[in-house]
Amino acid sequence: MHASKMHGVMRPLLSATAPSAKLAAAVAIGLALLYGPAAAHAQDTGSTSGSSTSGAQTSSASKKPSNTINPATDKKDTKNLAQVNVTGIRASLESAQQLKQNADQIVDSITAVDINALPDRSVTETLQRISGVTIDHFISPNDPDHPSAEGSGVAIRGLSQVESLLNGRDSFSANNGRSLSFEDVPAELMSGVDVYKNPSAELIEGGIGGTVNLRTRMPFDAPGQVVGFSTGVNEGDMEKKSKPSASFLYSNRWKTENFGEIGALVDVSYSELASRTDGIQVEPYVLRSDAPVLAGSNFSQVSVPGGADWRTLDFQRRRIGIAGALQWRPTSDLEIYSQFIRSRYTMSWLEHGAIFNDTNNDIVPANGTTFNYNNQGIFQSGWLTSDSWRAGLSGDGVRFDTDTRYQTQTTTTTDWSNGFKYNLNDHMILSGDFQLVKSTSNELDFTVFQTTYLPGLFLNTTGSGGMPSVTVNPAGYTANAANYFWNAAMDHIENERGMERAGRIDLEYDFLDNSWLQYMKFGIRASDRSEDNVSTPYNWGVVSDTWAQVNTPSGFAGVNYYPTNATLYSFSNFYRGNVNIPTPLYFPSNSLVMNYAQAAQYLHSIGVSYAWSPIQINQGDLNDQGERTKAAYGVLYFGNETALGIPFDGNLGLRLVRTDVSAYGFVQLPNLTSTGVPDAEKALWNGAYSPISAGTHYQDALPSLNLRFKLTDDLQWRIAVSKAVSRPDFSQLEPYVQLGYVLNADNNQVVQWNGYAGNPNLKPMRATQYDTALEWYFSNTGLLYTTAFFKDIKDYIAQETEPETYDGQVFNVTRPYNNGRGLIRGAEVGYNQFFDFLPGWLKGFGAQANFTYVDSMGGINSATNPYTNEVVTGVALPLVGLSKRSYNLAAMYENGDWSARLAWNWRSRYLLTTSDASTHLPTWADNYGQLDASVFYHINKSMQVGLQMNNLTNATTRVLMGPTSYGNGVVDYHLYGRSWFITDRRYELVFRASFE
Predict the structure, then answer these.
(1) d(Cα 477, Cα 488) in Å, to the nearest integer?
(2) pTM for this model (two decimals)
(3) Which among 176, 546, 690, 817 has the fewest CB atoms less than 10 Å away?
């Protein structure tokens, strides 16, 4: 019988085999609960690496025999993953099972070995391998026109309200509000990642979905000196740019005669990535009954798209990180430590897009043609033309913008923590931790537009693979610079600054030789968080147009007058040659768009007198918020081997939290001074700002209960119940009201008063959550488990439009409210095993799988009228970010010097946003699956070389739009295809070495 030292006691491990009857029973349990096979390295750990430096520590149910800060015997430290000798996939899987089996609560983890072995180069991509965890594939869910090469937006069991911890302490990225942007953090610095799905009272509050804890290494993790490094080069098959990566770790510990034991660690990483994304899109479909579109059909109403777009985005990112740590144990009763981590994430993307520019939904068939529809009256193909925005221009054609857009963003996050741990006596441990987090993020988004009218435009929405295709006639029209003019520019700026100071004190008391009580923990924590953010609106301004003509023969600023800042761009091998589009086209040059300061001077010189000028930050762009929290918790750990006839253990806890919020901002009145309304109205509605402030506070009591029943040595049953909260995002709390209007056709009377605002009086979303899990460990690398969960959520936050009165005028203002309840229920199943019963080299094969089902009820959201952009309430939409089904499948092989993994990840359709930035419609991400792989060869016990591969199946990211609400109860519930995106297959050649 093998043994593993867990929490200071010798715990027998599982036998290598299990009776076939038990295997059949466990399989039957999984199938009966309608779970699919699952479990990607679900490991359980609640402590940071090394000694007890984490505020996120949890403890095994094993009784603690004595009080000591020695990591080998400290209960809170025994889940230190580094203490398990993990040298490969098989050993990692075995250690995962040991940690999961001996956990105090339901926690899934991935160790540093797993992160390095999986075909994933970011923390975000790694997290999606855990059951119940999904990620987005867009830079922002509110802007689904721009996919993300490495994924973003982690959700747990369908909820994006996830608390992010770094070494057990609250941490955040300035560009992501309350949470860390996991893609910003170098994976190479991590020793492990933990996912808590039903947290206990010890954990910092903040995630009704769950809590993710990232752990970095500590010098006392290893018995002595450790040196490790890696280097690699990656390339995408579409972008065809090679980019480097490298990391270096040095850790050591020294015993001295007079100063005790000292440890030091430094870990640095650097990586770059370049990728390309191609996309073809269809503009929103609109129900129409006008004669031109009905011609040749038998329908009284048809659904017609506005046109089509195509775009290529070239993405680059650079990620630099450094982690350092010091540990000092001057005596056997005292330990002092310091941890530091700093990450710098620089991202930029350059996009060339041919974007449909007819906003009036009056596309009609070209002369002498009719549109083709399917049997539901939905447009299939046809020759398009439109008179929109043509003014005095002759000929046919549909207006298109060719825009070059450049966005750059740099996010820097620094986290520095210092703490201690002191044995007061044989029964009590006192520990403290003090933390400073500072994060900054700066973003510039700049677009320059040229415009043309594409003649002979044919759109087929059912082309190859069901994707649209576009042709023009004559084909050479797009390559003639004389057919374009400089049209407009648009810029946007964000500068975010966030800082948090936090401190905590914890006291643990052990009950020695007690048959029921094991130990209890108490603690207090206080934090002071500030947010100082600047975010401008998108500042669009004309250069020349049919209504803004300049002093040239045509009235336009033609690109042929200023050719040095325009360039002919070919969409080379667009969509791998599977989609037909017009090419080449003229675009604003890269050099112009990437030089923001000079672009303003150039565009002013060729445009109208009131041409676009760079945006100026004003009072309404400022968002100054503060938040203070005070928390106290207590947890009692208990257990008994005989009282119930079977061994059981658990913990009961309560966390009390008070939150105080302050916010400062402005109300901006409508600005009618340049309209044709009466002078009295101009004087009243002059765009003036009025300062406002708000403050609120609330208290929460968050109990938790975890129970574990050991039905046999191999089979155990868990029950977990808790309450959780998620505070509103700072963007939702912003005390800013922007009031606006809609004028009549004569520009002299307001026909609609509207506005948009934040809500500093929002309450947090609160959830009562229940979990139960049955886990069967049938061999050292064999695990089958099933988990059922239920969440009852109240104070759900969603946008609503309500009448509000300002200066005697009623405005329909849209802002977030706590407006209802939601229920989430579901199940997970997990399985992993190496097939040791097979002969010879075949025993190197293994499999992992997990499946998650999540269903929701409640959460009524709003939709938007595509004609008026007016918010229409009452359209039933699910919770944002929730996929009903997701799963992982992985085939493993490890034998001799070879190890390999082939991993498939899939999630079903989910709602991205209730109103996206382009269409103003509810937008969905369709079913998506991706295949990744890795293969490594061990040159010797210290060095290995391998190849990591991503997106081997050339997956398509498909976006849907709808339902479309027209008001007065008229709703088109059809989900139309909006976008089809593909990105690179990525390959990275990696060399790793480590020496102890």
Answers:
(1) 22
(2) 0.87
(3) 690
Among residues 646, 620, 628, which one has the least CA distance to residue 758? 620
Task: Label residue 693 exposed, middle or buried (CB < 10 Å: 0-12, 13-18, 19+).
Answer: exposed
Residue 805: is its pLDDT beyond 60? yes
List all residues 6 or more positions away from 734 whose beta carbon is below 8 Å from its beta carbon.
623, 625, 663, 665, 758, 760
For residues 172 and 191, what is the distance between their CA atoms, to the nearest angstrom? Answer: 19
981 burial level (CB within 10 Å; 0-12, 13-18, 19+): buried
* Per-residue pLDDT reduced to its tens digit, 675-718: 889 999 999 999 899 998 998 999 999 999 999 999 999 999 99
For residue 159, the tally of other CB atoms under 10 A from its CB is 24
Kindly state the DSSP code that residue 76 receives in the 8-state scheme: G
Contact assessment for residue 330 and residue 352, using Cβ atoms and an 8 Å cutoff: no
Domains for the chain: give ranges and CATH numbers. Answer: 3-995 (2.40.170.20)
Residue 673 φ/ψ, nearest 5 degrees: -65, -25
Instruction: Say how far residue 237 (Cα) sits from the centre of its chain.
Output: 25
Count of CA atoms in the C-beta half-sphere (13 A) of 94: 19
Span of 18-32, 156-170, 220-234, 859-873 with lowest mean pLDDT: 18-32
Cα angle 750, 754, 760; round to 5: 155
- Identify the band that residue 389 occupies on the pLDDT scale cut at 50, 70 and 90: low
Pairwise CA distance, residues 872 & 865, whole Å: 7
With b for 16 or more beta-carbon neighbours within 10 A and e for fewer, the 601-623 pattern comes to: ebbbebbbeebbeebeeeebbbb
* Burial environment of residue 188 by CB neighbours within 10 A (0 to 12, 13 to 18, 19 or more): buried
Give CA–CA dist 783/903, Å, rounded.
18
> What whole-number distance in Å separates Cα of residue 422 and Cα of residue 87?
33
Q: Which backbone phi and psi does 31 adopt, to 5 degrees?
A: -70, -35
Q: Are 937 and 898 in contact (CB under 8 A)?
A: yes
- The answer to whether 207 and 157 have CB atoms below 8 angstroms apart is no
CA separation (Å) from 687 to 41, 682, 683, 690, 734?
57, 9, 10, 10, 19
Radius of gyration (Cα) for the chain, nearest Å? 30
Contacts 24+ apart (CB under 8 A), 671-674: 672/741, 672/750
Evaluate whether 797 touches 791 at the Cβ level (below 8 Å): no
Q: Report residue 842 as tokens.
A: 């075949």
Rounded mean pLDDT, 20-33 = 38
pLDDT tens across 579-588, in order? 999 999 999 9
How confident is the model over 216-257, as pLDDT tens digits? Answer: 999 999 999 999 999 999 999 999 999 999 999 999 999 999
pLDDT, tens only, 895-938? 999 999 999 999 999 999 888 888 888 899 999 999 999 999 99
Express each pLDDT in 65-75 by its tens digit. Answer: 333 444 333 33
Non-local (6+) Cβ contacts of 268 within 8 A are: 247, 248, 249, 321, 322, 323
Q: In this predicted structure, what is the pLDDT of residue 464?
A: 78
DSSP state of 940: S
